[in-house]
Every structure is written in structure tokens, then in C-alpha cells.
Design brief:
The complex is a heterodimer of chains A (344) and B (261).
Chain A (H helix, E strand, L loop, with lengths): L1 H33 L7 H9 L11 H35 L12 H15 L3 H23 L7 H25 L5 H9 L8 H20 L1 H7 L3 H5 L5 H23 L5 H13 L3 H25 L7 H20 L4
Chain B lengths: L2 E9 L5 E10 L4 E5 L6 H8 L7 E6 L2 E2 L5 H7 E4 L11 H6 L14 H14 L14 H14 L4 E5 L7 H18 L2 E5 L3 H7 L2 E5 L5 E5 H4 L2 H8 L2 E9 L2 E10 L1
Parallel strand pairs in B: 3-8, 3-9, 6-7, 7-8
Antiparallel strand pairs in B: 1-2, 1-4, 4-5, 9-10, 11-12
The chains are: A mainly alpha (344), B alpha/beta (261).
């Protein structure tokens, strides 16, 4: 009887947890639509949004409509997608490598994509070219990592990590080279700014390309969520549970690569989210990837929304995201780490 | 289910040959112990048996069917493998860990359902740790962790259980607990057990058959009482031993004492 009561109690707690994890990003999303240098009241935002669903006579200005729909909406959607994507691929990689220190950048994808973007800025500066080159080189980097790490008998995990380090270092050096030769008046600041990450360029066109890639990757990882538990075991132990680890591993890597490369190509390199959000999610829902991955989607999107709110409202100029993700995230994580003693 | 190895031969890459013409078999519900000094390839043998490593010659057969012709999933539905426990990176709950044993039955995008949970709970009950289900794997003792790994293997509903030194770093009482449990599993569930161990006494205690691996590809296989003799132990382990029979509450037992190297 006590057992049943206890279980009912945890069930209730679970439901509450799930509801808050779903609602949290939605609420912050709505508040963020109001926020900015130009305040739009929640009622007006609601009316503007509803006017797309049903006919309404506008009692708001055209500026308000444009700010909410053309500027903030795509930007916030991008922030949520990227936050969710980086957090879930970070959690996927941490499980895959059975290493809580791993982030989505481990296989060199960000360095590759960063190089592609820097090259694009150097050569043309057109947004389309920059994004295409970023995506292209991000994927090239992971293919290079894969090629280096592959042995006849499959790919041991340490080969994969070391290959990622090699490829990452190589592309980092190429980024430095481009910075070195870039025009310091004009191109260099653009490159540096871009490499620190920003949502300011978000548009519906971007979303049209990026959203299917990021959402696709997230869906694949969510579907694999239970398998990642098994991938996190030792290689032979995982094999003895009858799963094809090489194959499963590459599906996780492919999904994470697509997410990360698409994110970097849309908004530059956003650090820290993919490393730390999985830990925070683990504190809340535990280490089981079945629960962890969906939680990362919620907390990642919530976190990047807030960071982006600060980035665009704190000062007159935009603050690059990677600065904020760590300046706000690091003390917060330090606090959690002290409080829990690293046990979660 | 009968497991049989015929004419097994294995070496790592270009390395020295570990075994040659190795043949042995275990019937349903029987227990086989594998003994041998460090470095002769006891753990490797378990991996060869299960096709994690591929035999260079010969093959493993399940009920007469060669293992290398079977799909991996099919193999792991029949064989439950209990590795040496090295601790876990992520502190999954005991229940989540045991549920992983259902992997061979679930599609790549599936998650365990209620019926899988029922099977996992049954396994926990068999090994006697149903009260630990909600505990985290980082909070339990080494002996309990070993039981969790056995429960996970049982959750695949195997017909053969293969265990790599299941009692090696446990204290007296826990060693006994594991050995008696394996004996019970073999008897009650008709599951054949194959166990690696360093202790000839443990072989005497629970196994029907024993395989001793030695250096230079030597080996001996047969009924435990015929294989574990003072002569054989001296030959394979290079130590002088005395096997002393005694009676405990009317049950004949044997102990093995090493005298000198």
C-alpha cells in the first residue's frame, strides 16, 4: 500500500515536472516577444499573433507588428532551435563517449564550420555564401574526423576523440590564418564577431533552411534516446546487449553533426550550451537518456532564449552570445556544482 | 540449450596463438567453469565463444547451429553476458540498468514498455534485489552491482549465461552469495552457466564441467571432479596443491590449498 502511495506520489511529481518543462520555454518565448528596445505589451503581442489565425481589426501600429513578426519571432525561434539542438547533441555526445566533459564541438564540426564562415566573410561577405561555406566545412570536418578514426575493425571511441581533436586543431589554425590575413578595418571584426555567435541576423529565410535540419536532428536523437543509454556502456558490454554499436553510433554522430553545423551556419559558434545544459538537465531528471534528451530540448531552448534576451536588451549594442552563455552560465553552474557536490 | 565449441583456435592479429583444437560443450542447465593462470586468455575465450572476437578456426554452436551464421540479435537473445563490473560513468538507476537487458528485443527507435519492466522486475526478484530498483548504481556495493549485472543478463531471457569472474573482487560472503545464486539459476531456470574464475574451489562447488587453460595452448576439459586434481593443478598453475575432502553437515566438500610455487 505504501508502495502504491509512493509511486502515485512520484507519478504526480513527474507530471508536474513534465508540465513545467513544457511550459517554461513557451512562457519565456512569449515574454521575449514583448521584450526589447521597443516594448510591446503582452496583449498586443497576443492580438498580433492571433490575427494570423483569425480575422481581426488591428489596434496596433505597423511598427509593432513588424517588430514582433519580422524581427523578434524568427530570432526567438532560431534561439530556441539552436539552444535545444546544441543541448541535445551535447547530451547525445556525452552519452556516446561515456564522458561528461564532451560537447558537440568535440568532433571538429564547429571549428570546420567556423573556418567556412570566416572564409566566406573574407571572400565575399554575402550571408548566403558565408552560411553555405560554414555548413559545407562543418560537415567536411566531421568526415575528416571519421576518415582518420576508422580502422579495419571499426572505430574505437578514443580514436574518434583524438581524431576530432586533430581536425579541430587544424581548422582552428586555419581560422587564425584567415584572421591574420583579413583586413583589420573591415573583415576582421566581422569574422571575430561572427565566431562569438549572434542571433541578430535571424530571418525566415534562415529558418527555412536551418529549422528542418535542426529539427530533423533533434527528432532522430529523441527517437534514439533509450539506445544512447546502451551506447554509454563499455563497448563490449553494449555489444553483448545485441545492438549494432558502430551503426547506432554513426547515426548519433550524423544527427548531432547536422544540428551543430546548421546552428553554426545560422548564428555562429555558441559555446557552453552543449556542455553544461546536459548536466543541468541531469540534475533535474537524472541520467537516463530517455528522460534526459527531451529535458535538454526544453532547458536548452529556455536557456538560449534568456541569454539572447540579455544579448539584445542589456546594452545599446548586441553582446555576442558566447560571452554571455559563459559569463552567466559559469557562475550558475559553479553554484550548482558546489551545491550538489557533482553527484547527479 | 546446448553450447558447443569445436576445434576453436584464436590469436590476436599477428600475436601468438592462444588456443588450438579447443573443444568443449555445456548442456542445458549445466555449469562450466573456466580456470587458468593470468594471461592465458580466459576473458578472451568468453569473447570468442560469443563471437565478439572471431575464431580463427573452428566455431561455436548453439544446439548444433553455428553461431557465426546467426544474427547478432539472435545470439544475444540466447546468451546473456555478465562483464566484469568496472563501475558506470552515468549513475543510472538499478531499474534502468536492468532494463537495458531488453535491448535485443526492442527496435532501434523503441523504448522499454510495461511488459519489459515486468520482466526486469522478475529478474531483480530472482537475484534478490527487488528493493534496490530505484537506487542509483553509484550508491550500491560491489556485490550488489554484480547482482545488478546478472539481473540485466537474465532480463534478456537467455538460455545461456556467460560470466567473467563474477566473484573476483567480492568478499567471502558475497562470493558465496553469487555462487549459490548461479547454482540456483542453473537448476531452476535450466540456464547453462559458463564462468571464468581464479578459484578451483568455486569450480568444485558449483560446476558440472571444468576447462583449464594453460600456457602453450595446453588445455584439459571434462567433468569437474576428474579435471580438478592435484596433478592437473600443479601442471597448469605451476604450484603445489593439496585437495582436502571433508564433510560439512553430511555433505562432502573439498578445499584446495596451495602449498608452494
Amino acid at each position: 500500500m505504501q508502495d502504491v502511495l509512493a509511486r502515485e506520489h512520484t507519478n504526480k511529481q513527474n507530471r508536474l515536472l513534465i508540465i513545467s518543462l513544457v511550459l517554461l520555454p513557451v512562457i519565456v518565448f512569449f515574454i521575449s516577444l514583448c521584450m526589447g528596445r521597443y516594448w510591446v505589451s503582452p496583449g498586443t503581442v497576443l492580438n498580433i499573433l492571433s490575427s494570423y489565425l483569425m480575422p481581426m481589426t488591428p489596434d496596433w501600429t505597423e511598427v509593432e507588428q513588424s517588430v514582433v513578426i519580422n524581427i523578434r519571432l524568427p530570432r526567438l525561434m532560431l534561439a530556441m532551435l539552436v539552444g535545444a539542438g546544441l543541448a541535445i547533441s551535447g547530451a547525445g555526445f556525452q552519452g556516446l563517449f561515456a564522458n561528461p566533459l564532451v560537447s558537440p564541438h568535440i568532433l571538429g564540426v564547429s571549428a570546420g564550420a567556423g573556418f567556412g564562415a570566416a572564409l566566406g566573410i573574407l571572400l565575399s561577405g554575402q550571408v548566403g555564401t558565408v552560411q553555405a561555406l560554414a555548413l559545407f566545412f562543418g560537415i567536411i570536418a566531421v568526415i575528416a574526423t571519421w576518415t582518420i578514426s576508422r580502422l579495419k575493425s571499426g572505430t574505437p571511441i578514443f580514436m574518434l576523440v583524438l581524431s576530432g581533436v586533430i581536425v579541430g586543431a587544424f581548422f582552428q589554425a586555419l581560422i587564425s590564418l584567415i584572421k591574420y590575413i583579413a583586413d583589420p578595418e573591415d573583415k576582421l571584426p566581422a569574422i571575430v564577431y561572427w565566431l562569438m555567435g549572434s542571433m541578430s541576423g535571424a530571418s525566415y529565410d534562415d529558418l527555412l533552411i536551418g529549422a528542418p535540419l535542426i529539427i530533423g536532428g533533434i527528432v532522430v536523437l529523441i527517437l534514439l534516446r533509450w539506445r544512447i543509454n546502451i551506447l554509454s556502456l563499455e563497448e563490449e558490454e553494449a555489444r553483448s546487449l545485441g545492438i549494432n554499436i558502430q551503426q547506432t553510433r554513426w547515426v548519433v554522430i550524423a544527427a548531432s553533426t547536422v544540428i551543430t553545423a546548421a546552428s553554426v551556419c545560422l548564428c555562429g559558434i555558441v559555446g557552453w550550451v552543449g556542455l553544461v545544459i546536459p548536466h543541468i538537465a541531469r540534475m533535474i531528471v537524472g541520467p537516463d537518456h530517455k528522460r534526459l534528451l527531451p529535458a535538454c530540448v526544453s532547458i536548452g531552448s529556455f536557456y538560449l532564449l534568456i541569454i539572447d534576451d540579455i544579448a539584445r536588451t542589456a546594452t545599446a549594442a548586441e553582446i555576442p552570445l558566447s560571452i554571455l552563455t559563459a559569463i552567466i552560465g559559469a557562475p550558475f553552474f559553479a553554484y550548482l556544482l558546489r551545491k550538489t557536490g557533482g553527484k547527479w | 540449450m546446448k553450447l558447443e565449441v569445436k576445434n576453436g583456435e584464436f590469436k590476436y592479429g599477428m600475436g601468438r596463438t592462444l588456443y588450438k583444437n579447443l573443444s568443449f560443450s555445456v548442456e542445458a542447465g549445466e555449469t562450466l567453469t573456466i580456470l587458468g593462470p593470468n594471461g592465458v586468455g580466459k576473458t578472451t575465450l568468453l569473447k570468442c565463444i560469443t563471437n565478439i572476437y572471431q575464431w580463427k578456426q573452428g566455431s561455436t554452436y548453439l544446439d548444433g547451429k553455428p553461431l557465426h551464421d546467426m544474427q547478432a540479435v539472435q545470439v544475444w537473445k540466447n546468451i546473456g553476458y555478465v562483464p566484469q563490473s568496472n563501475g558506470v560513468v552515468f549513475s543510472y538507476s538499478v531499474m534502468d540498468m536492468v532494463l537495458m537487458g531488453r535491448a535485443p528485443y526492442l527496435g532501434i527507435f523503441s523504448v522499454p514498455a510495461e511488459k519489459d519492466r515486468v520482466i526486469a522486475e522478475k529478474s531483480l526478484a530472482i537475484v534478490g534485489i527487488e528493493h534496490l530498483g530505484d537506487k542509483s548504481c553509484s550508491e550500491i556495493s560491489g556485490g550488489e552491482m554484480q547482482l545488478v549485472l546478472i539481473a540485466r543478463a537474465l532480463t534478456s531471457e537467455p538460455e545461456i549465461l556467460i560470466l567473467d569472474e563474477p566473484e573476483s573482487h567480492l568478499d567471502f560472503k558475497n562470493q558465496l552469495l553469487i555462487l549459490d545464486l548461479l547454482k540456483k539459476i542453473a537448476r531452476d531456470q535450466e540456464i547453462s552457466c559458463i564462468i571464468n574464475t581464479h578459484y578451483p574451489e568455486h569450480a568444485l562447488r558449483i560446476s558440472d564441467k571444468t576447462l583449464i587453460l594453460g600456457k602453450n595452448k595446453k588445455h584439459i576439459f571434462g567433468r569437474t571432479e576428474e579435471v580438478i586434481t592435484e596433478d592437473n593443478l600443479r601442471k597448469f598453475f605451476d604450484v603445489d596443491v593439496r585437495i582436502i575432502p571433508f564433510e560439512n553437515r553430511g555433505i562432502p566438500m573439498k578445499t584446495v590449498v596451495a602449498l608452494s610455487g
